[in-house]
Structure of PDZ domain-containing protein:
Amino acid sequence: MDASRIRAGRRGAVAVVLVCAAVLGGGCSSPAAKARKDGPPTAQAALPMAADDLQDQYQKVIKDVLRSVVQIQAGPSLGSGVIYGDKGHIVTNAHVIGSEKTFRVTTARSEDPLTATLVYSYPEQDLAVIKLDKAPAGLHPAVFGDSDKVEVGQIVLAMGSPLGLASSVTQGIVSATGRTVSEPGGDGSPGATIPNMVQTSAAINPGNSGGALVNLNSQVIGIPTLGATDPGMQGGAAPGIGFAIPASMVRTVAGQIIATGKVTDSGRAALGVTVRTVVDEGYRPAGAAVVTVQRGGPAAKAGLEAGDVITRLGDSPVDTATELAAVLAGKKPGEKVTVTYERSDSRHRAEVTLGEQ
């Protein structure tokens, strides 16, 4: 899997890897699990009352929510999804479905996979909605909570199909909020820079993408999307670092898709350019070079042209295309910013009123 970065200040970075839209289909088994099943029974120590109460709460949440989490097969890949509303809609990650248009969906109660069709994919926020062709009776839509009220330290459960193991649950806490994370493209997804993500210590493994991050009130507070890798470990997993798209953004995007068939009001700021990273003579990143300028867009109105190299947006330095996307992710449409750029070895500044992506 390809790696990307989460910004931590300008220089500090942690590599981030997409949590699987690319688990190959097929059965999965665990020799260790079989050994435990066939081995002798073991006695369990009695749990303290407080732990016993927490265990009961976990089991209640799992019973309430797991039936709303589905497994999605998109071509050869497997991922997860969450039932949204009572009409057969399912919300998932755009990178889970890739470029596919039709899918096979396994619900908690379906003996055989159900067929589903793409409604709309919005890669800019890594969200998509698909719809069951024939929604069966007894679907249980998930309840989405208020992600704006999420606090660090809250206990959460991650539900999905890691490594193709349907209806799996891991637990952890909310580690941080408000993270801006850049994910790579590939497998039909162009990648995205996503603001305000929820960081969690709950294990996010390949196949969890598109599933549910749930609080102890049985409310979905996020859609698990990314797990992290450590560059110092040759791309090995960085345990306890995962990211979820907040429920508030999921409701905004999914609601628009279901109502209109597309995203009509993203709330994401845009310059109206496509860019690529350029390097200096020492092969160090040196800015975001403008490749194309949208006709009549914000950058065009401010006088930017193809070939200009953007080096700063407002007070934030820009060394790469990813950094430009990350800075824009923290802005709002209609906001005025100063763009610093280089043209023909001369430095220029322009005030730009940001548009909407």
Q: What stands out?
A: The helical segments are 31-38, 49-65, 94-97, 247-260, 298-301, 321-329. The CA atoms of residues 109 and 178 lie 36 Å apart.
